[in-house]
Amino acid sequence: MSEAPSPTKSPTKTPKIGFVSLGCPKALTDSERILTQLSAEGYASSKTFQGADLVIVNTCGFIDDAVKESLDTIGEALAENGKVIVTGCLGARTGEDGGNMVRRLHPSVLAVTGPHATQEVMDAVHRHLPRPHDPFTDLVPAGFGVAGVKLTPRHYAYLKISEGCNHRCSFCIIPSMRGDLVSRPVGDVLSEARALFAGGVKELLVISQDTSAYGVDLKYRTGFWDGRPVRTRMLELVQALGEIAAPSGAWVRLHYVYPYPHVDELLPLMCTGSVLPYLDVPFQHSHPEMLKRMRRPASGERNLERLRRWREACPEIVIRSSFIAGFPGETEEEFQHLLDFVREAQIDRAGCFAYSAVAGAAANELPGMLPPQVREERRARFMAVAEAVSIARLQRRVGATMQVLVDSAAGLGRKGGVGRTYADAPEIDGSVQLLPPEKISKTMRAGEFTQARIVGVRGHDLLARPI
Ligand code: SF4
């Protein structure tokens, strides 16, 4: 009779978790937090649903296509694995019957949470797949590794500075899913940034729902970092981030900045290069009436004038924005106003959605819903104008020498590679197609900066020769 293996000596199987992360960069940072915690507790990851003991799906619930993709992924994970925990924005959405949408459509999921819910997700994981005992990881204090698991390439990272939003734009259900604005303590944000730079990050992308509002909920109170006081406010945060980035020459890029007057204070930092002269400002429309109907923040601001002043103060500034065409009640005249704005404001990079109703959004009740083909036709017209502006602005770069952050370069870049200048955020803007370097001895690696001479424009991208 063979001896029963001693429990302490038997090799314990490490529980494996499959993870799918859908949605925007804000959802991605939620995924990174959950994965960091899972890894800290000794869970392993699985690349397939079948190879996992349990699957977590971080969902997006913003527009109908994203909802469909999320629901399909949950269905796939249930069919292939059976044990599924759902988190993220879709998890917070209610269906037509007033009940939880995910639970109604997929009643066999093990647990459903909203976004920004690391602890609830971990509680659900512990219930259904007990954490492994590991004498090393059990000694690691909670919250270790301020720069934990990243889902982005090694050289860039998203830094989420707040959660939720105090605005109530009529087309948006994010506040109902993520709640009011909650700013992260400035010390935590700066510690995470320092850890990211120390880990090799060369580009930090600051994200939130409303970056300009950072600290409003805390009444801009003074926090502490590195033994010195720092106010919980966008300007002070960005100043400090610039200082932390400077020794490694890393970039700091700001997203979701609403054009409030205090954003002007950032211009000197952009001129000196401590933060990139790049602002992602989601205007959504230009016509005052439309902005009112959309209930947009900063809708009373004179945006054209503000942009003109920004460009005078910092001629290198690049403006990215997103817009909605065919919003309920939009007249042809109001739409023309938007086209004129894009031309006059010389928006460098623009994205545009044809308006689509989101279940639960106040805009659904607005009069003047336009037929889908009109919304789509306006989106196409908008993009034709926006692309012409964008390409003309790219053309102005030809002949210049620019710093490029290399995203990929096989074989040490001898045959060229792909990178981006300060004017291009990853995933959403164009890129720089790098030709083989001028000097045969020059090499390039992903995550390194190189100087390159811009030799042409190819669609939304630049063509450049590394020098
Ligand atoms: S600012 Fe408006 S669009 Fe953005 S998250 Fe807040 S409510 Fe939504």
From TrEMBL:
[4Fe-4S] cluster 2 binds at residues 165, 169, 172. It comes from the Bacteria. Binds 2 [4Fe-4S] clusters. One cluster is coordinated with 3 cysteines and an exchangeable S-adenosyl-L-methionine. One of its GO terms (cellular component) is ribosome. Residues 395-467 form the TRAM domain. It is found in: Cytoplasm. Transmembrane segments: none annotated. [4Fe-4S] cluster 1 binds at residues 24, 60, 89. Pfam families: Radical_SAM, TRAM_2, UPF0004. Residues 151-392 form the Radical SAM core domain. Keywords: 4Fe-4S, Cytoplasm, Iron, Iron-sulfur, Metal-binding, Ribonucleoprotein, Ribosomal protein, S-adenosyl-L-methionine, Transferase. It catalyses: L-aspartate(89)-[ribosomal protein uS12]-hydrogen + (sulfur carrier)-SH + AH2 + 2 S-adenosyl-L-methionine = 3-methylsulfanyl-L-aspartate(89)-[ribosomal protein uS12]-hydrogen + (sulfur carrier)-H + 5'-deoxyadenosine + L-methionine + A + S-adenosyl-L-homocysteine + 2 H(+). Its EC number is 2.8.4.4. Residues 15-130 form the MTTase N-terminal domain. Its cofactor is [4Fe-4S] cluster. Catalyzes the methylthiolation of an aspartic acid residue of ribosomal protein uS12. HAMAP family: MTTase_RimO (MF_01865). Belongs to the methylthiotransferase family. RimO subfamily. This is Ribosomal protein uS12 methylthiotransferase RimO. It comes from Verminephrobacter aporrectodeae subsp. tuberculatae. The gene is rimO.
